[in-house]
Amino acid sequence: MTFSELHYPEPYTVRDGLFGYMSVSPKGKEVFIPLCNFCPFVQSQVLCDNGLEGHVRVEIGAFRTDGTPLPTVTVNDEKFTSLDWIRSAWGYENNIETGKSVKDRLRHAIQSTAQFASKTFCYEATGWRKIDGKWEFLMPGDEQHTVKLFGRAVNYGFCRTGDISAVAFAYELLYRVAPERVMFPLLAFTFLSPLNSFLRQADKEPQTVLMLTGKTGLKKSTLAALMLSFFGKFSTSQLPLSFRDTANSVLKQSFLLKDVLTCVDDYHPSGGRDASDLNDKMQKLLRAYGNRCGRGRMNARAELMPDYYPQGNAIMTAEFSPDVSESGTARYLCMELNPTDVINEELTRFQEYAANGVLSYAMFRYTEWLKKEFLSDEDEFQKYLLELYRKASVQLRTLAEEEKGTTLRDRLLNDIVVLSIGFKFFTDFLWSERVVTPENRTNLQLDFRDILLDLAAKQQQKTVADQPTHIFLRKLFSLIESGRVTLLPKQDATGSIYDRTVIGYVDDEYYYLFSDQAHREVKRLCAEQGEAFSISENGLLKALADEMLSIHDSDGRTKKTVRIGSKTQRLLCLNKLDVQAIAGEV
């Protein structure tokens, strides 16, 4: 648009180098009232939809009254009314007149030009959306539907041209870059992501994240970026999310990045307050992904605000497993990288493929295959997913018990079942594209089943190790071995029980503890080491009894009546061998 083409509805006009409006004085005379020394107008309106709430983004242009154009500025509708964006967008020389009603008049003048502006529709979230009765996978770069992401998420987008070799390269990734124990779960998780919406409808949505751990320099972030390259173009310096972002911003982005894979990078607490803050952030994110729900909030008007929750899948990278207690550990699957795991030459080769859009073209073909093969009847698709889930649950639970001697917890079982579903769809896709034979496909699925069982067994051990009872017993043993606390001989308890370091008695078989003092000493040690130990004394006693780690009377209480000298006392009674076994000493 040129200055001469600019049109304002009455009563707005330009006069004597100023923009304003015509008014009528009390005497009936027409008077020009200036508003500002530039001519603003609505250039276009963008109606935005992020899947939870809608808003308008307005592109506003302007001319100086000599016809010189000013830069176009994009303003969200909630900021439009204040007009504070004028100064920051166009500088101080573009000035608004004084007066109480001037800003509102100018707002009205700008808004009145919207009737002449273009209007478009924009999605601000990725993933599956039913549009005009058809399922579409929304990603930036779609010619049919405008999709716009912001911040570091701008690198998402499919390459939509290529050939079958892209799918073959996706298959090669299983074996080329890192050990199968790493690459099989990573690819299963990647190709699981576009199934999230439909698994959610079936109430079987993934409830975990993949945690890549290892020392600096082992290519954790690089591997994560390679997996994300199935959904765009990413490198270690362009990962979409970081533990240096706020938890709320990560959760907002995790909602918008629907049905795709993302990465929350670089968990490495440096100690003190930083460790506490990062652990809190890790806890919040793991609970959000583990529960697939957000945090209810209200605005200043006591109105409920939109509840953002993760809709995609996430890889997290960390130098070591986070200190997030038993419940946090149950919400991630950990894969540790060793120094010789990543083959740098192969990694470089696949990074070049990723930079050229080869991997994202493979994922584009995958989403088109899902649409063609399954989404013509979503009810049948949901039934199919539920049947797959049921069969995999029975099979993996049985095999874990028979081959690993492990009874999987329900949450962990869900995690490996959905991974197995993601891998089945990946291998079925490879077969449909004639990249593998039916026999290859079956062998791949059998190999992945063994990898899953090993992964589940290790994760179950890690989860048990993070139970409050096991933390208590490990810390207790270290306090006893270091001499920081004192145990009096049960048969010759002649020492002073008023000694502040005395926490109970001992004989050849058992520790007999003053539970309040033992709990207090362990909690103090955890605090000194920057670790959380939030379980109460009563909660700890009950948990020890429930897990049969303490010996107690048959009256249902959590302590045992023990004769010490000439008196009886109710004490926490622990088998020494059990404590030493959990502490790793036997």
What topology does this entry show?
Blueprint: E1 12-15, E2 18-24, E3 30-36, E4 38-49, E5 54-64, E6 69-76, H1 77-80, H2 85-90, H3 102-112, E7 118-123, E8 127-131, E9 134-138, H4 165-176, H5 180-192, H6 196-201, E10 209-213, H7 220-228, E11 241-242, H8 247-256, E12 261-267, H9 272-291, E13 313-318, H10 325-329, E14 332-336, H11 344-355, H12 358-374, H13 378-403, H14 410-432, H15 438-465, H16 468-482, E15 486-489, E16 502-506, E17 510-513, H17 515-528, H18 537-546, E18 550-551, E19 560-564, E20 567-575, H19 576-582
Parallel strand pairs: 4-7, 10-13, 10-14, 11-12, 12-13, 15-16
Antiparallel strand pairs: 1-2, 2-3, 4-5, 5-6, 8-9, 16-17, 17-20, 18-20, 19-20
Helix pairs in contact: 4-12, 5-14, 5-15, 13-14, 14-15, 16-17
Number of strands: 20
Structural class: alpha/beta
Number of domains: 3
Average pLDDT for all residues: 91
Approximate strand percentage: 15-25%
Q: Report Rg.
A: 32 Å
Distance between the termini: 81 Å
What does this molecule look like?
With 586 residues, this protein is an alpha/beta fold. The protein has three domains: 3-123, no CATH class; 159-465, no CATH class; 468-582, no CATH class. 42% of the residues lie in helices and 20% in strands. It has 19 helices and 20 strands. The strands form five sheets. Strands 15, 16, 17, 18, 19 and 20 form a six-stranded mixed β-sheet that branches. Helix 5 (180-192) crosses helix 15, helix 14 packs antiparallel against helix 15 (438-465) and helix 16 (468-482) crosses helix 17. The longest helix is centred in the C-terminal third of the chain and has 28 residues, at 438-465. The radius of gyration is 32 Å and the shape is globular. The termini are far apart. The model has no long low-confidence stretch (mean pLDDT 91).
